[in-house]
Amino acid sequence: RLLSFRACCCGEAFGVTPRRCPMADPAARCLKLRDRAVEQNPRVRHLLDALRKLGCDPGPLDTFIQCVSLRTPHGVPTAAAVTGGFEVPTPDATQPYVPKVVMIEDHLPDAEMFDRTLVHELVHAYDQCRATVDWRNRRHVACSEIRASNLSGECEFAQEINRGRVGFVNHYQKCVRRRAALSVALAHAASPEDAEAAVTAVYTRCYADRAPFEHETPTRPYSQPPPTTTTTPK
Q: 1, 9, 71, 83: which is deepest, by most CB within 10 A?
């Protein structure tokens, strides 16, 4: 199953309007954006290198990072306008687990959105590799979602303005909390209250965990000093 999904077009995640989601040859566009990201995006490259250093070689990237369509046979997009997900192990699986990132080609109109989504999902892949993550545990999911929302750049000030959300006092942290809770609710079919409670329970430790970007020099006003410890919630 896919752990996490990013909303697009009219959704919460990026705040862009439907006219920015051209559907002309989305498969070719997605593959081009994927190849560009793995070759040129420094955060994507760093996450892939970090996976290899931990002993989790993703193998051929065209297999590990897949472009897929969620459109119906009649060409109508599904109601849930998602942009990506990370496939996590299931306890009742009959086949060996093979991790992969899924990028939804119908809902990724440009490189900026593609790269943020890919970094988000690669943080989940990194967490799966380095820690004993129980994806059925709501707090474990919350921890990874907090980290992914924090490290992907999806809570940048400009992104929040695009979503119609403007704030100045701890707004970045509020965005990380909000988006992590949304993802937990989607992944676990949880109520907003239960999802928020899971995020609150692990927020301080998991927000401080910036691996594998511990030594990254903050370059934006809202960035936090990178700590040197990592966290697996209990």
A: 83
| Count of CA atoms in the C-beta half-sphere (13 A) of 72 | 6
pTM of the model: 0.81
Q: Say how far residue 74 (Cα) sits from the centre of its chain.
A: 29
User: Which one, of 125, 147, 163, 161, lies nearest residue 224 by Cα?
Assistant: 147
Among the options 87, 121, 154, 196, which is catalytic? 121
Give the residue among 116, 177, 185, 178 at the shortest CA–CA distance from 151: 116
109 Cβ contact list (under 8 Å, min separation 6): 16, 20, 21, 22, 29
pLDDT tens per residue, range 88-136: 998 888 889 999 999 999 888 899 999 999 999 999 999 999 998 999 9
Residues β-bridged to residue 84 = 103
104-122 burial, b if ≥16 CB within 10 A, otherwise e? bbbbbbeeebbbbbbbbbb
ω before 227 within 30° of 0 (cis)? no
Query: Does the annotation count 154 as an active-site position?
Result: no
Structure tokens at 43: 């955060």
DSSP 8-state symbol, 65: E
